[in-house]
Amino acid sequence: MKLLALDTSTEACSVALMVDDQIVALDEVCPQQHSKRVLPMVQQLLSEAELSLQQLDGLVFGKGPGSFTGVRIGVGVAQGLAFGADLPVHGVSTLAAMAQAAFRTMQAKQVIAAIDARMAEIYLGQYQLDGAGLMQLQGIEQAIKPTALTPLTDAADYVAVGTGWQTYGDELQHWQTARSSSILYPSAQDMLVLAKPAWQQACFVAAELAEPSYVRDEVSWKKLPGRG
Fold first, then answer.
1. Does 34 score more than 70 pLDDT?
2. Which residues form the signal peptide (predicted)?
């Protein structure tokens, strides 16, 4: 099994390659440079592994939520590479990837992932580890104002990941009992781990069916100046 993953949905640009169960990854924090960096990073990993795109079995992409522009870049690059090499694709949540990173680095079993969504909101998801060592979403991913969140009675059992905890620290004080972490951005290596079962279950799809997950709905956009 040879899978390549890429993510450009946040300030970080991340690419990872899985050959069987061995994973190598490149992660860079490079705001507004994703379109310039992602393809050279892909080429670097493939060259080091002495592989071509055509030798891969599939492509994995960060489907969001995150920056609208960043999510579109990631989906577009994944589609372009997949079309060129006739490969199937699979999208993985950026919030889920950060939750998976908390298990990889901290053995966390419960995670609250929060990314700054602008407009005084965060993208939020709560995750719990399953028996296979994979983070599973509890409820839904949502765009929400931090002040609208209901306090968790068991927040101390969770690990906090993502930029939302830094940006909205004051508003999230009622959840500050959650253990902090150094995980701010998703990494493609964790997307590969989450995508592996989908590959084994033949759930990858054709490149033209790749879909982003913006999470924020149309109603939120109508609040912006100049939008009706």
1. yes
2. none
> Are both 31 and 83 inside the same structural domain?
yes
Q: What is the mean pLDDT of the chain?
A: 92
Residues 100 and 212 in one domain: no
Q: Is residue 182 part of a domain?
A: no
- H/E segment holding residue 114: strand 110-116
Using DSSP bridges, classify how beta strands 122-129 and 110-116 pair: parallel, antiparallel or unpaired: antiparallel
| Selection from 116, 99, 85, 125 nearest residue 194 by Cα | 99
Strand partners, 93: 64
How many other C-beta atoms can be found within 10 angstroms of the C-beta atom of residue 79?
A: 18
Residue 10: inside a domain: yes
Q: Is residue 132 domain-shared with residue 67, that is, in the same domain?
A: no
Is 39 within 8 Å of 77 (Cβ atoms)? yes
**Nearest-angstrom CA–CA distance, 195 and 150:** 31
| pLDDT value at residue 217 | 64
pLDDT digits (tens, 9 = 90+) for 36-53: 999 999 999 999 999 999
Q: Which two tokens stand for residue 22?
A: 């061995």
Bridge partners for 110 per DSSP: 128
Domain of 123 in residue numbering reads as 95-175
Number of domains in the chain: 2
Q: Are residues 43 and 79 in the same domain?
A: yes
Each residue of 75-98: pLDDT tens digit?
A: 999 999 999 999 999 999 999 999
Residues 6+ apart with CB under 8 A from 19: 1, 2, 49, 51
Residue 222 one-letter amino acid: K
Report the SS3 class of residue 125: strand
* Single-letter amino acid, residue 206: A
CA–CA separation, 228 and 210 (whole Å): 29
